[in-house]
């Protein structure tokens, strides 16, 4: 049985060690890292899983990203991942529990969620699809069949665009 806790309550060094074990030390070269480059993960939506003995066995992080359409408009989204489980504990349900915790923490009508992952698995269990992303691009190599999105109303999604980090516009008016 997994215990799910906020990722912010876990030592960042332990998280980095787990990510290295799950994805290898060259993980920073992956396209997903380029998409979210320069942003910070969202603490309210990111979690860790501990096993019955209290050992860290998995993490999930969600990130602010945007799809910039051909007209230069940024459409904010939330990037799901990495979903990481230590190799010796994979296939035990920790990843699924982390996904349910993260997606369950989203408000109704939340921003579209995007990820790079297995379409069959993430589609069947969590409602992600590659169909709306056919005209999207990423800053690096990727398999278009693995670029997935989850959205209450896919008709609102731009047909084309480039995924990248979400940054507040410097010229945006300040809110009172």
Automatic annotation (TrEMBL):
Which segments constitute the N-acetyltransferase domain? Answer: 2-154
- Spell out the Pfam families in the cross-references: Acetyltransf_9
Q: What EC number(s) is this enzyme filed under? A: 2.3.1.-
- InterPro entries (alphabetical): Acyl_CoA_acyltransferase (IPR016181), GNAT_dom (IPR000182)
Alphabetical list of PROSITE patterns matching this protein:
GNAT (PS51186)
Give the GO molecular function terms.
Answer: acyltransferase activity
Q: Which domain of life is it from?
A: Bacteria
Q: Which UniProt keywords apply?
A: Acyltransferase, Transferase
Indicate what this protein is called per its UniProt record: N-acetyltransferase
| Species in which this protein is naturally found | Pelagerythrobacter marensis
The lineage is: Bacteria, Pseudomonadati, Pseudomonadota, Alphaproteobacteria, Sphingomonadales
């Amino acid at each position: 049985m997994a215990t799910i806790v906020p990722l912010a309550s876990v030592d960042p060094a332990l998280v980095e060690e787990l990510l290295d074990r799950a994805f290898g030390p060259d993980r920073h070269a992956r396209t997903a890292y380029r998409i979210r480059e320069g942003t910070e993960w969202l603490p309210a939506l990111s979690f860790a899983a501990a096993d019955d003995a209290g050992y860290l066995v998995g993490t999930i992080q969600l990130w602010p990203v945007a799809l910039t359409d051909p007209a230069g408009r940024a459409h904010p989204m939330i990037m799901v991942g990495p979903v990481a489980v230590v190799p010796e504990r994979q296939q035990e349900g920790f990843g699924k529990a982390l996904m349910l915790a993260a997606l369950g923490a989203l408000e109704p009508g939340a921003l579209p969620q995007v990820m790079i992952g297995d379409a069959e698995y993430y589609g069947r269990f969590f409602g992600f699809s590659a169909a709306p992303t056919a005209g999207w691009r990423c800053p690096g190599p990727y398999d278009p069949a693995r670029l997935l999105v989850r959205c209450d109303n896919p008709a609102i999604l731009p047909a084309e665009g480039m995924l990248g980090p979400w940054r507040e516009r410097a010229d945006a008016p300040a809110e009172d």
